[in-house]
């Protein structure tokens, strides 16, 4: 009797197995929360940033530190008047726009009483214990106007997702150990914190400020959470308000720039 050739069974099943495997991978793979920021170009790439363009990692961070460390420093008292210009409400020149709450409030209501706005240190000044002395404590790139009580709610908490609403929150949330700003300024907050981490590297008498993934940094010169800040940078790209603010600080006050507003993709290139 002739022998009938039998096709190996695994040849027929393998495509099906591969298809099932692909479905399982698709079902179990974590969803991406944001795509990396696309490369941008600015008018400053051939001048201000010429020694940084094309670099990545520690080399990029070091080059940017050298570039942005050349700045004019202002006093803490001078910050009051500067914020009235940098954070002017584009819809009402008599007001400033508050960072976390989004409220438009009269420029004249700066102070420390209920209903006033004061000077919020986005990189909490206790994280590195630099206070309000001229330097990181007066750097306009991370100082923003905010309602006195909202500022108190934020305190010196690290940034993270989650929490509950509060009075005048504007959509911002807080819990026992972290603060989540409203969606419209999540990227602003991330880029301000990471600016500070590049600008202050411990070489000019101030602490070496660095981001990490903790929400319990206390007085250590660290700020978290880096993984969340990176997501926020992607989810909320620079808008006209943030770009104008960067330009005003550069041309009128400190004469240095926040590189992550000009090149948000450099966040991923460094971290």
Automatic annotation (TrEMBL):
SUPFAM superfamilies: His-Me finger endonucleases. InterPro entries: Endonuclease-I, His-Me_finger_sf. Residues 1-34 form the signal peptide. Residues 161-172 have a biased composition (Low complexity). Keywords: Endonuclease, Hydrolase, Nuclease, Signal. Residues 158-180 are annotated as: Disordered. GO terms for molecular function: endonuclease activity. PANTHER family: ENDONUCLEASE-1. This is Endonuclease I family protein. It comes from Streptomyces flavalbus.
